[in-house]
Amino acid sequence: MNHLLKLSKLKNLYFAIRHGESQANVLGKIVSHPENGIGGYGLTTKGKEQVIVNIKTYREVWNKPVILSSDFLRAKETAQIIAQQIGVNSILYTDQLHERNFGILELQPNQKYKEVWEKDKLNYNNKQYQVESVESVTNRTTELICQLETKYQDQQILLVSHGDTLQLLTLAFLNKNPHEICAIPHLKNAEVRELKLSF
To answer: Is the pTM of this model over 0.70?
Structure first.
C-alpha cells in the first residue's frame, strides 16, 4: 500500500541516500537478514570515501537535518559519516528502512536479484524464495513518511537505507506501481536522491 496517496503535499524535504560500497557488495552476496546485516558486512574503505565525496555538494544545502537510518551496519556507518561531516549529533534508527528481506536467497550470489525483479514485474505481491514483497516494502516505507509528516514540519530529512528499499520508496513518491521496480535507475552506492511527490 502506498500511504503517500493520502498526502496532498509534504511538510518536509526528503533525501534518499543509499549506503556506500559494503563488504557484501564486494563479495557479491545478498545480505538482507538482520542477524547478518546488523552486526556485519559494513562499509569498505572505498565505501566510506564514496559517502564523503557524494555529500560534499549537499553540505551547503542541508542545515541540521534529521537523519534516519536502517540499523544494518553498512547503512549505520554511512549515516554516522554523514552526521560527522555535516555536524549533526544524533541519528534515529528504524527497521522501516531495513533492507528488503530476500528470504532463502540470503548469502547467495547477488545475481539472484534480477531473478526476483523479473518475478516482481509479474506480481507486486511476489514472495517466491520467501522474499519480502514489493508491496510490503512500499507499505512500511511510505508509512514511515506519513509518520514523519505528522512529527516534523519544515525539516530536511535524510533517509539512509538500501537499494531495493529506496527504489520502492522512490516509485511510491512518483506514484508508480511497485512491481515496476526496474522502471527507473537504481541508486548507486552513496548516491543522494531528493524525493518529490509526483501525483
So the answer is: yes
